Amino acid sequence: MSSAVLVSTRGLKFRPPPRPAGCGPEEFFVGVWWPRSEAIVVEFPDDAESAEGPNWALAGSRSPVAEDRRRLVHGDARGGIAFRGYLLEPAVHGWCDARDVLDAWWERAPDVPNGVFAVARLDDRIGELELAVDALGVGSLYYRRWGNAVLFATSPRYLRLPGDRLDALAWRLRISAGSVTGDDSLVEGIRRAPPGCRVRFSADGSSAVESYLPGDFLGAEVRPLDDEALERVEAALHRAIQRCTSLPGLSAVLPLSAGHDSRRILGALLQLGVPFDALTVRIPDRQGRDVDARFAIELAEKYGFPHRVLDLPRAGPYTALDRDRRLLMHGESLHHTWILPLCNSLPSRPSMVFEGLAGDALGETGYVRPALVRPDVSARELCDLLAGQAFEPLFRAPFWPSREAACARLLGWLERLPAFQRGEWVFLLTRTRREIGAWSQRLVPAGHVTVYPYVDLDYLRAAFAIDAAAKIKDSLQHRCLAAFHPELAAVPGSRAVPPDLPRGEIRDLDALELACLRALDSDVKGVDAARLREVLPWRLRAMHRLARRSRSMAARVGWWRNAVLEMLAVERHARPAWDPADGDGR
Fold first, then answer.
1. Is this model's pTM higher than 0.85 or not?
2. Rg of the chain taking only CA atoms, in angstroms
3. Cα–Cα–Cα angle for 306, 309, 313, nearest 5°?
């Protein structure tokens, strides 16, 4: 074991949580900071990549695809840095050389950083810890208190302590809102670093949360969806992609679907002359048609870029991948098992993976009901949507807090958000940030860097300011494709499927997802009857049992049953990552 060299008063031993069997290796960092008035011994496994200081300790994964030994945690005379993700100015990512990472965050750190990242800065000169994430908070970073000490990590599963309990209120909102809300985690005591903020813990043990975004960051005036707006956002997207391609030592990979988001990125890469490899997972649409792969192949043949099509595995391997997905998501997202074949097929060299996150939300608006994207939409209206009265029969069981408690927590968060385009901003901070963004933050293997051109600050501001109601009527994404890439727009896609497109001989995604659900149900089948009565009222318990035998019933009740099963699995199978010890730390 390696340990911080201190006179011990307390001890912490890190025990890595279970690792995925079929995907990975997982990319993570984890750390401990404590005030200098205390002394803590921190022990990591011998094979961990670690760094230590007078009142902190860090550990993290290493890159298996870099030629030299690249890691996410570093230390020098100034202190420690744990950095995952990327900055665009200066152009640096988590797998860069240690000197570049340390200099970027100590000497060249921008006041308003552009990129998607999670960073912990441990300043030995003043004994302070600072945690920060990007403006939208896509970068995955969590923290919790342990006495006066602070534990932090890129996943909540790396912060579990003995005796932890599920946060019933966060789980209630996770079900009713369709994603985790605010800066909650699903475990009591663990918080997620808020978007666009620095969370500071000072040498005297005090803490503060400060936004680094200017007060007018999101803008103040709603703009029309006109030709000028199209030119503005297209130019911003090109700049964003150019900035991404300036990240050193990475080759470009584009996950190419039949949707607008990846196709706009494709158009920009082609116009900029950036070499890239494309990957497409062959999955059926709701009518069983092979839309993504069919038209991606057509585009690759037309433009001559390297392209691979990946088929979904059979039910057995697919459910095994889903277990890995559940392990890594820790209950925070129910989707994207289908993406794991792509993650496992990335090149055996460091790559930047272009992800279209936020493209649709910014281009066609998230909430497609005009009432929810009005400029004057209130926090109460959004609270009513996210708290969802249709779910009340589920929440009559003893486990669940009241709707009043859920609304109080939601309103406490919503009322602190900027009022400008509030409905758009709430969608981005919930569904986009916490649900959709989770796959690329948790499932892409160590050594690669996921880049998000639609989250570039220039693009985010330019697209966010456009009238959301106009985007419901007239898609910004479609108009940009038609105006600037008409040849790409002419190739059919998921938004314009030819009516005579035949069904393909491809895997039945519904059948695969049902197999995953049955495997999940099997994992929690041993939950005792008393616990099930706490979580589900009698009528829903009966439907749950029927869904074990009926595919139609499983589909009918999946909106609540899947999340409840995930919750029970997290409760039953999660393991503490830290073993606290008193006295001399043994």
1. yes
2. 24
3. 150
